[in-house]
Every structure is written in structure tokens, then in C-alpha cells.
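Notes from the 1:1 (GR / supervisor)

We went over the backlog. Supervisor wanted to see one worked example end to end before approving the batch request, so GR pasted a single chain during the call. The sequence is below; no edits were made to it. Supervisor asked that the structure be written out right there so they could see what the output format looks like.
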Amino acid sequence: MSNWTDDGKCRCAWLGQWAGAQDPLYRDYHDTEWGVPEHDPVRLFELLTLEGAQAGLAWITVLRKRQTYREAFDGFDIARVAHYDETDTARLLTNSGIVRNRLKIASTIDNARAWLALEDKVGDVSAWLWSFVDGIPQQHNWQSVADIPTTSRESDTLSRALKKAGFRFVGSTICQSFLQAAGMFNDHTTECFRHREITSATQGTKGVLF
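Structure output shown during the call:
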């Protein structure tokens, strides 16, 4: 299903399904971030956190809270979050700018600790995450949103590996969304103008940032 907007560009239909393709925040996220290969560990930890926070919610809800999340979690500094204690948890539970779910907040702290522990084992956690797609952005060619699977072989494998490493809120569906958001999958539909741009920019590379 086409999703033509006022600037004459065709975008993924999911953009209009949730918040309307005219929502500036959502449109900018779709046009400049979603599906772009990301390797920075802080940004990857942020994406994993926000995808977990989204569970049961619409992505636009979490996207609108992202800046407050960054402020509340010290810019997603993994080492700092890993040292949060009960005082920090209590502080976060009073912050209306984030999803005030005790389990989700606790999982973010636990995941920061798991990240550091994994780092001791594998070294570069970002490279480890990218290894689940062989270090190369996977270019898919879905014709419609209905064709895009909610899980995949890669998301199943990543989910199992993360759980084994001590991460929480990392089910296969969450991992699939993470793979898409981090640009490990290019899951823009073929009619979307971003599908062509990302394919061209990443072809023959190992996840170049742009």
C-alpha cells in the first residue's frame, strides 16, 4: 500500500498507520534513522533499550519520550547505567517522561551490566551484534508492510544469545525490531524512497555509517 505524502515522496505504509505520515518527529525518524547501519555502542544500547521499552506500546509513544530517556539514563552511558542502584530506580519510577514500568527500568540496568560482562568475553559488543548478520547490512525486498516478518532466523538466534548473556526484554520480536532499526536489516518496502537510498549507500560495505 502506497503512502505518498505532501512532499511527493513515497514512504513505508507503517508510518501512516501509527501517527500519520505528516508527524514531523516520526517522519524524520523514518527518513534519517530507521534502517541506517549503526555501530556506535551507546546508540546500539539505546536502541535495544527503547525497543524493549516499546513492548506493548506504539513506537511513536517511545520515540516521543526518547529525549527524556537520554536525560534520565545519563545519555545511555553503559558503564554509568550499570552502576545504578535502588535510589536510581526510585528516581526513574517518578519520571513521567519515560515508561514507568519497574521491570523495564530494572531490565535496562541489568542489560547494561550484561553488556559490560559480554564485553569482557567478546571484546567489541557492537561487532558481536553485527556478527548475527555476518557484519553486512541485509538488503530485503519487501513489497508491502504485510510481507515483512515480525521475527526471523537472525532475530531468533540473537534473542537466544542475548538471553544466554543475561539480557532481558530481548524476545525475538524485539530483536527483529532492533535489527531493523539498527540497519542490520533494510526493511523499508521497495516502493519507499529510503529503500533505494540505503541499498545504494551500503552495497558492498560492512555497515558504513552515513
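Supervisor's comment: The longest strand covers residues 138-139.
Batch request approved.
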